[in-house]
Amino acid sequence: MVLQRFSWPYGGRSASCCGSFTGWRECPMGLVGAEFQVVFDLPPGVYQYRFLVDGVWRCDEAKPFVRDEYGLISNEVLVENNVQPVVQPEPSIRGTNVDEGIILTTMPPEPGVQIAVFRHVVSGILLHNTIYDVVPISSKLAALDTQLPVKQAFKIMHDEGLALVPLWDDHQGTITGMLTASDFVLMLRKLQRNIRVIGNEELEMHPISAWKEAKLQLYGGPDGAAMQRRPLIHVKDSDNLVDVALTIIRNEISSVPIFKCRPDSSGMPFLNLATLQGILKFLCSKLQEQAEGCSLLHNQLLSIPIGTWSPHTGRSSSRQLRTLLLSSPLNTCLDFLLQDRVSSIPIVDDNGSLHDVYSLSDIMALAKNDVYARIELEQVTVQNALDVQYQVHGRRHCHTCLQTSTLLEVLEGLSVPGVRRLVVIEQSTRFVEGIISLRDIFTFLLG
């Protein structure tokens, strides 16, 4: 237990303190000199607290604070006690025994405390920085006009290596939506099944806006009109990184447009796209400057509740880990990607060893030279789809890690541009044991 002092030095006639450690019950504070104080005996951990001063709830603006899901602000404190006295004999020196003494040794904290401490450090960094701090000073931005023909749009996405792209509506003068690899999958399926939404010959002239309207009619059901009226999910350049990350996670999207709070003379409100990878890269750079509270970074994945795992590992997961064989139908792979709302599935050989990863964005390879128009999608296997991918981009490297990899190694691996997940393998056999995605990382860090 640790004696923790809480103080209110800003005056008042009376003051009380309450927090997560009191069950949010008010505890009177005593006046010591010019400030109100109270001391609690607490176990190590992270706690939230507030003050009631003259009947008004207050927070100390000079101390760390957090905002809960209801927008309520509380101060936050990290209580640590890593140094403990341990009685042990010192070794003899040249045959002469030295009296036993008390030596101060640093004891490793409990895993639960380590996680709480690390989350406290991470939340402090993310809450006190905005998405504007993450946006590159200069970068290449792409946006497609909603009146561009669908066929031309998907060809541009393939040629530029884009898995998604913002849509610009010239009439409204702003970004109104996103065109994604999922749109390409849905369009292919409708073409292949001869459902007259957009005929193959119409792709040359049919605009993106028409496809989006047809998509709403097909998948919107009775709420299609409501979906059409739903505003574009976006963030502002002044939003803190916690809010931006939660927007991406809760809406199950891979990126979100950033709008300027104050549009400049260009009149263009769109600033950039925010991604979890960009936020993680920024976080890693800040953690390098952090001297304390980061011991969890050196723990192995074995001891950290994060990721999606195969049942044979004995580890629990919030969702099922799927793998597919090379001979599996591509349609089955696409079904899993869309239904599970995941971005990739590990592809294994007959022994269960990792061969490659098929991502939703890989479907864009079929847009090159109109390959999609010359194939029967239902006859294509995962192997066929990967072969097309290799012909277009060459064989690629699978990004992997081990259960014995440290959290630091995982974070650094996922902060590399273009890497969205690490497949956890058994080192000698390359048997797939789990997968760690960017979404898994931030769900854990913000948990």
Shape: globular
Residue share in helices? 25-40%
In total, how many domains does the architecture comprise?
3
Per DSSP E runs of 2 or more residues, the count of β-strands stands at 24
CATH superfamily of the largest domain: CBS-domain
Quickly count the helices: 11
CATH architecture of the largest domain: Roll
As for the CATH topology of the largest domain, it is CBS-domain
Largest beta-sheet details = 6 strands, antiparallel
Q: Uncertain runs with pLDDT below 50, 5 residues or more?
A: 83-107, 195-199, 221-228
Protein name: CBS domain-containing protein
Organism: Miscanthus lutarioriparius
InterPro entries: AMPK1_CBM, AMPK_gamma/SDS23_families, CBS_dom, CBS_dom_sf, Ig-like_fold, Ig_E-set
Keywords: CBS domain, Repeat
Summarize the helices and strands and which ones pair or pack.
Elements: E1 2-8, E2 15-19, E3 27-28, E4 30-32, E5 35-42, E6 45-53, E7 56-58, E8 65-67, E9 73-79, E10 83-88, E11 101-106, H1 111-127, E12 144-145, H2 150-159, E13 164-169, E14 174-180, H3 181-192, H4 208-219, H5 224-229, E15 235-236, H6 241-250, E16 255-259, E17 270-275, H7 276-287, E18 308-309, E19 324-325, H8 330-340, E20 344-348, E21 354-359, H9 382-393, E22 400-401, H10 407-414, E23 421-425, E24 432-437, H11 438-445
Parallel strand pairs: 12-13, 15-16, 19-20, 22-23
Antiparallel strand pairs: 1-5, 2-3, 2-6, 4-5, 6-7, 6-9, 8-9, 10-11, 13-14, 16-17, 18-24, 20-21, 23-24
Organism: Miscanthus lutarioriparius
InterPro entries: AMPK1_CBM, AMPK_gamma/SDS23_families, CBS_dom, CBS_dom_sf, Ig-like_fold, Ig_E-set
Pfam families: AMPK1_CBM, CBS
